[in-house]
Amino acid sequence: MLPIRFRRPIAFAILAVIFPALVSAQSTARNASAAAKNPAPWGSDVSSSRLAHLRHGINLSHWFAQSANNDYSKAHLDSHTTAQDIALIKSLGFDHVRFTVEPAPLFNWADP
After folding, report:
1. What is the pLDDT of residues 23-73, one digit of tens each?
2. Domain tally for the chain?
3. What percent of the residues of the chain are helix, what percent strand, and what percent coil, each to the nearest 5?
4. Residue whose C-alpha is closest to residue 67's, from 58, 55, 77, 57
5. Does residue 107 sit within a domain?
6. Which end of the chain is more exposed for a tag (fewer CB within 10 A), N or C?
7. Which of 43-52, 82-91, 102-111 holds the top average pLDDT?
């Protein structure tokens, strides 16, 4: 069992990965349905709709990795990203964020 201090960040990371995937899957299903009704002509750029969907995102893959002395304590994670940070990202025109999760810190290799 993971220590309590890791549960909230892990839950946040899982939610942050799964939620956009579900939204994207729903959007893709709608686009696939529309494409089935109006197939694209041979040689068309199929990825343009995907690019249009992703163009207003920002990669935050290393946003959480820049912690001095690897401080991933609850206090640090609770205060690291503020409402002002999110407002700034939105005010810059981004409508979604993308980030990866490094699974190694989530596992205890001595007790998998």
Report:
1. 666 666 566 565 556 555 555 565 777 777 767 888 887 776 677 787 878
2. 1
3. 55, 5, 40
4. 77
5. no
6. C
7. 82-91
Enter the tokens of residue 56.
Answer: 């207003």
Establish if 72 belongs to a structural domain.
yes
Asked if residues 64 and 105 have their Cβ atoms less than 8 Å apart, the reply is no
DSSP state of 64: T
Q: What's the token pair of residue 81?
A: 């990203």
In a domain, 69, yes or no: yes
Residue 56 carries which DSSP code? T
Asked whether residue 112 is domain-assigned, the answer is: no
Domain residues for 32?
Answer: 4-38+47-102
| Alpha carbon distances (Å) from 71 to 13, 25, 37, 38, 88 | 17, 34, 52, 52, 24
- Say what the pTM is: 0.43
